[in-house]
Design goal:
Layout (H helix, E strand, L loop, with lengths): L21 H30 L23 H12 L1 H13 L2 H27 L9 H34 L3 H30 L4
Length: about 210
């Protein structure tokens, strides 16, 4: 008979809060995929700019009277961006409080993040109207509506995830595993805000330059 060496892992923690957790890697790889998806849409946006149209944004001929320079309005999108960036502050507090396992601080700031996320979702529907063109007007309008729509889906998903974590915290309390899960949802929220900064500049300011 041959002796087998045995490693005692009984003293290892059952969960980790950072990159040593498999779910942390799974979430980050998901964000890589989502970023690639937006990259493909952005590539289509600039493809249409270079190949299809001499003027950018293209004139909206179906508008009465014809709108020669249909630049998207800035007011609502800029307010929405500011609120989305503001929501990152309570999300950051949530992330830090998870390390210290402060359940009350986590829950309170998670609720604030959810409220700001719901405002962003509501403003996004008004943002569609501020674009000044229908989704089927031309290739330019279709790709812009697609970008806003997909990001809206992420806003809804991120807010729902935060709401699920808050509901669990209020009903069941938080343990080490759920502190880690909340950290992952806040990382997703930071990505939602960060990717929108780039897309906002491209959609609302690039046509003006």
């Amino acid at each position: 008979m041959t002796a087998r060496s045995v490693i005692d892992v009984s003293r290892l923690p059952s969960t980790e809060m950072d990159h040593r957790s498999p779910i942390w890697w799974g979430n980050n790889l998901l964000l890589v995929i989502e970023t690639t998806m937006f990259g493909l849409i952005v590539a289509a946006y600039f493809y249409f700019r270079v190949v299809d149209f001499h003027q950018w944004p293209p004139p909206r001929s179906s508008h009465n009277p014809m709108m020669l320079v249909p630049n998207p309005a800035l007011t609502i999108p800029t307010i929405n961006l500011a609120i989305l960036l503001l929501s990152c502050f309570p999300a950051y507090i949530v992330d830090r409080a998870c390390f210290r396992k402060q359940s009350v601080v986590v829950t309170l700031n998670l609720l604030i993040t959810i409220a700001l996320g719901m405002i962003c979702i509501g403003l996004r529907f008004l943002e569609f109207k501020s674009l000044q063109f229908r989704w089927d007007e031309n290739a330019y309008s279709s790709v812009v509506w697609t970008i806003l729509g997909i990001h809206l889906a992420h806003l809804i998903t991120g807010t729902c995830e935060n709401a699920l974590m808050a509901a669990w915290a209020l009903a069941k309390g938080l343990d080490a595993k759920h502190f880690r899960d909340i950290r992952i949802t806040t990382l997703y929220w930071f990505w939602i805000a960060g990717i929108w900064v780039l897309l906002y500049v491209m959609i609302y300011w690039f046509p003006r330059w």
